[in-house]
Automatic annotation (TrEMBL):
SUPFAM superfamilies: C-terminal effector domain of the bipartite response regulators, CheY-like. It is found in: Cytoplasm. One of its GO terms (cellular component) is protein-DNA complex. It comes from Oceanobacillus limi. One of its GO terms (molecular function) is phosphorelay response regulator activity. Residues 128-226 bind DNA. The lineage of its organism: Bacteria, Bacillati, Bacillota, Bacilli, Bacillales. This is Two-component system, OmpR family, bacitracin resistance response regulator BceR. It comes from the Bacteria. PANTHER family: REGULATOR OF RPOS, SENSORY TRANSDUCTION PROTEIN BCER. GO terms for biological process: regulation of DNA-templated transcription. Keywords: Cytoplasm, DNA-binding, Phosphoprotein, Transcription, Transcription regulation, Two-component regulatory system.
Amino acid sequence: MFKILLIEDDMTLFEEVKQRLSQWSYEVIGISDFNNVIQEYSIHKPDLVIIDIQLPKFDGFHWCRMIRAHSNVPIIFLSSRDHPTDMVMSMQLGADDFVQKPFHFDVLIAKIQAVLRRVYNYNTEQHTELKTWCGTTVDYMKNTVSSNTASIELTKNEMFILKILIERKNEIVSREELIKSLWDDERFVSDNTLTVNVNRLRKKLEDLDIGQYIETKVGQGYIAKEKDNLHD
């Protein structure tokens, strides 16, 4: 389930959008203190931000700048202002899209889905969120790996690595291939960074007693194995 932070001070509109988006299985959260938007953003760590331009204290442009200083999370602006410079400004600040108020809800949904597909390679018509591996459930959407007794949370980079290895289970995936895939996704820039992230991933998996199922093949790459063929 994708988490959406809706930065909107019109509570009637906020509740309406939240209710409609929940029907599409999106989790929508709001802002309790408009003086501390960036702090609440950091706490919630949303997958998408929808932000109004006219807000108490500071406008949406200010908070967009602040968020962009910390993250490349996708941002969609909502605005009742119709001046072309508002749209230009939002794009210059790094927003992904702009929706004019009043808006048709189907338009908002279409824009949200388009941004999520583009940023997270998410297919709204057919996608597999859950995968079973080594007796655990891997949730690609929530970035979690869970057993019957515990659960760990991975970063998007760690889950990206794990997903590639699981989808090609029992097959050696070369370091070069992993780096190329991750480079294309603009997440990694060096061989050393890959090593650090694989080691971090393996250490987290050790909390579920499955760290040993990600094997390093010296001079070749990495391989994800199942419990019944660990020593093949």
